[in-house]
Design a protein that fits this description.
phosphatidylinositol bisphosphate binding, alpha/beta, single chain, CRAL-TRIO_dom, 5-stranded mixed β-sheet, two-stranded antiparallel ribbon, vitamin E binding
């Protein structure tokens, strides 16, 4: 069933999951998924399946393909997907590497920020202990964000997957997707050497056909010239639609970024008037830590699938 044959897509996107107009789409997708050997064992609840229908504008065939790809990707990338517990990436989170803005843009999209570069590996702020696998482990807090000597690119990407699994539960995010800002200030060769063609393909898969979120925009700021070879590895795997949504702002982002994202929601560090980037990162880290049990359940079940639709982070 294709949405255009019977219903208006925008109308469908605005309906609750228990609407009688959505029921035929859910029923058909569940029936087709149950017939697929690779995914028939998943917990095919309505709140789980609706994500894939929303992501593919209620085209059941495309939603089924996305669901199959999602499961396949998670099975084939255990270095990223097998352990989604926040404690596995606590160092990155506590370094204010990543945050989700409190407010959405005018189109209702979630705004994610990743600070991929800047770090000082010789200096650390303090040490702290985290309860992990029945014991307390000691972690160092480094000044900065991603220290490539401490965290692999796979761990960095795991943070992105953790956030994706949390925000995909939000009904408004399912409808309106996300925009991501990647701050590459002080990106260096040590970062670049971590990105190989295999990982580049895995990253592109999530952006295109292996995760039920609509990517509305990707904004790169402070990108150095030697980031281009890394981007060149990823670009061939991206469809034209995604390529057209990638914007490189350079160091003059304060003027151009607000053309895509309202100043009222952006942190002051990025030319806006919203909460500071440190506040944003700390708030989101706290929310991630509160979601430990849910994320742990996803680590156990590599196929994903849950009965919870709601999110407390709104």
């Amino acid at each position: 069933m294709k949405s255009g044959e019977v219903d208006n897509i925008e109308e469908l996107n605005n309906l609750p999951v228990d609407s009688i107009r959505i029921a035929p789409y859910l029923s058909e997708l569940k029936q087709k998924a149950a017939a697929e050997v690779s995914i028939r064992h998943l917990n095919l609840t309505e709140t789980f399946l609706i994500r894939f229908l929303q992501a593919r504008d209620f085209d059941v065939a495309l939603a089924l393909k996305l669901l199959i790809n999602y499961h396949k990707w998670r099975q084939e990338c255990p270095a990223i997907t097998a352990d989604l517990k926040p404690s596995s990436v606590i160092g990155l989170l506590q370094n204010n590497y990543h945050g989700v803005l409190r407010s959405r843009d005018d189109a209702g999209s979630r705004i994610l920020i990743y600070r991929i570069g800047k770090y000082i590996h010789k200096q650390f702020l303090n040490c702290y202990f985290v309860h992990y696998n029945g014991e307390y482990r000691k972690f160092k807090l480094f000044l900065g964000q991603w220290n490539p000597k401490e965290f692999t690119a796979y761990e960095v990407f795991r943070v992105s997957l953790i956030t994706s699994e949390l925000i995909v539960r939000e009904w408004e995010t399912q409808r309106n997707g996300l925009k991501a800002i990647f701050d590459l200030q002080d990106w260096c060769f040590a970062h670049a050497l971590q990105i190989n063609p295999s990982l580049a393909k895995k990253i592109s898969s999530v952006l295109t056909d292996s995760f039920p979120l609509k990517v509305r925009g990707i904004h790169l700021i402070n990108e150095p010239i030697f980031f281009r070879p890394v981007f060149a590895m990823i670009r061939p795997f991206l469809p034209d639609k995604i390529k057209q949504r990638i914007h490189m702002h350079g160091s003059s982002y304060a003027r151009s970024l607000s053309d895509f994202i309202p100043k009222a929601v952006l942190p002051p560090e990025y030319g806006g008037t919203g909460p500071s980037i440190n506040e944003v990162c700390q708030d989101w880290t706290e929310y991630i830590m509160q979601s430990e049990d849910y994320l742990h359940s996803l680590s156990i079940d590599l196929g994903g699938g849950d009965a919870s639709q709601s999110s407390a982070y709104e």
